[in-house]
Design brief:
Length: 178
């Protein structure tokens, strides 16, 4: 069995993966599995994003937090975690870094003093404005292998996968309703 992949050389790579009798081919066992391919796609997506956004020193996780706070400036840490589907500890680490850079500010909620509301600082707002070009470029680079119909199909299939299997997630996603 051969598995064709495309390398950065833009040429196909054929893997002839011999397997002992009675043992599944590695292509069937690993390389053809959706989880493996989704993980690789995620690694590639992160790499493209970080390379494209490196002048801004912006990671996909940081961008997610900033985008959610830009959309709703009344959120606390737990709400941000749910809105991007990450655990609270990970979001806490992201927020510490964003606060240290002067991009996010925590302030007590006037209605509930135990709750801390997160807002973008003017520097955070400015970074979000400047990130539009690089994040759009990263999106285009990631989606470049597909035509318009394939892009729409890919996004629809990923949304179907995520929404159907959401209950299996370790960190639930509760999208903003704005």
């Amino acid at each position: 069995m051969s598995l064709n992949l495309t390398a950065q050389t833009n040429g196909p790579i054929a893997f002839d993966l011999p397997s002992p009798p009675g043992v599944p081919m590695l292509a069937e066992l690993l390389y053809g599995r959706p989880g493996f391919l989704l993980r690789r796609a995620h690694q590639i997506s992160v790499s493209i994003f970080e390379e494209t956004c490196s002048p801004l020193a912006l990671t996909p996780g940081q961008f997610s937090v900033l985008a959610v706070l830009r959309a709703d400036p009344t959120l606390d840490q737990s709400s941000v975690a749910r809105a991007i589907g990450l655990d609270k500890v990970t979001v806490s680490l992201l927020l510490r870094g964003l606060e240290a850079r002067g991009l996010v500010h925590r302030r007590p909620d006037l209605k509930n003093r135990r709750r801390r509301v997160l807002t973008l600082t003017p520097q955070g707002q400015d970074l979000m404005r400047r990130s539009r070009g690089p994040t759009d470029a990263a999106y285009e680079r990631l989606m470049a292998p597909f035509d318009a119909q394939q892009r729409a199909s890919l996004l629809q299939l990923l949304q179907q996968l995520v929404s159907t299997l959401e209950p299996c997630s370790r960190a639930p996603l509760l999208p903003l309703q704005r």
